[in-house]
Amino acid sequence: MKLFSTLSVLLTASVATVNAQSWQELSSNLFTNAEIVWQVPTNTLPKNLWVYHRLLPHVFSATVISNAVVLGSLQKRGIPKSSTNDFFILQEVPPDWPALIPTLLGIRPADANLYFSVASFAPVSQKEIPDDETIIKLARKCAPQLGLDPAKLVQEKIYNHSCDTDQAANAVCGRGVFFSRQFDGIFFFSAADDGESAEGFSIEFGKHGKIQAFSVRWSEVARYKNERTASPDAIIRCLRADKAIVMPNFRDDDFATLKKLATAKKFTITKITPYYGEGMFGEVPTNDVPCEFATPFAELEAVADFGNSNTTVRLLSPILSSEVVRLLANKTR
Question: Which domains does the chain have, with CATH numbers?
Fold first, then answer.
C-alpha cells in the first residue's frame, strides 16, 4: 500500500530527528497485556466488502492532457500526446543546476496519475487566497477539464500549504481542497489532508486564485472479489499479535506519546471506519510498482486508559477475514 510507504518515510524521518527507537519497536507488544474492550455495535459494518481490481495503465485522453497543460500555464512547452508512456515537463534550469530538477507536470499512466506543481512558492497573505467556498467552486469547475465528474467529488477536505522560511515561520503559500474517491460509499484513506497516497483529486490555489498544484489519481476499476468482514474478536487478535498500526500525529511528542501508551491498562475500541487503500494491508510495494488492487481496511478509534487519565488513539487494522488469516499466519510484522 502506498499509505504504508508514506508512513514509513515519515516515521523514518522522525526517528532520525529524535534519535529514538523505531516506531515499530516502540509499538510492538503494545496490546499484549492491556485489556481490550470492544464497544462498537456489531451491526455498524457491512457483512461483506468488495476488493477492486485497478485496470492499469490508465491512458489519459488528448483533451485531458491538453487541458492539464493549459491549467498549468505550460503551453509554450508543448502538449504531449496521449500514450501509455510516462511523460514529464521539468522546470527550466541553468546548465550547471546542482540539484534534482523539479517536475512541473507529470503523467504516469501506469498509476493513473496526472499532476502539476509549480517549482517554488512564496508566502502569501491569507487575504489574497480565495475563501473555502470559492476554492471548492473553482475545484469543481476544473474537474471536468481533467476528466472527472463533479458529481463524484465528495468529502472535500480543505488544507493549507505551509512554506515555513527563516523569515516567515508558519507562513501559508497556498490553500487547496482534496476530494477522496469512494467505492460503495467508502472513501480512500490518506494520512495527509492533501490526499497524498490516495485515489482522488486535489487542487491548490495561491494569490488571486492562481492554480499552483493539482493531482488526479483515478484508475478504471472492476470488482474483483467479495470478501467477508472480520469479527471484532478477529480484529482484537490482530491487535494482540502486533498486526495493527498506531497512527502518529506527526508531532514532536509522538514518540513520547507512544511510550506512554505502552503503560495503558485498558484500550476501549469506540469507533471503526472502513477505508480503501491500495494493495494488501501491511505490505509495502517495492520498486515503486503501482498496486493492482484496492482493498478495504479499518481505522479504529480507541481510548487508552492509564488508570488516572486517558487519551484517544487511532489505529489501522485489517477488516477482511482473509487479511486477518494472512497476517496472523505471518510471524513477522
Answer: 2-53+224-329 (no CATH), 58-92+100-218 (3.30.310)
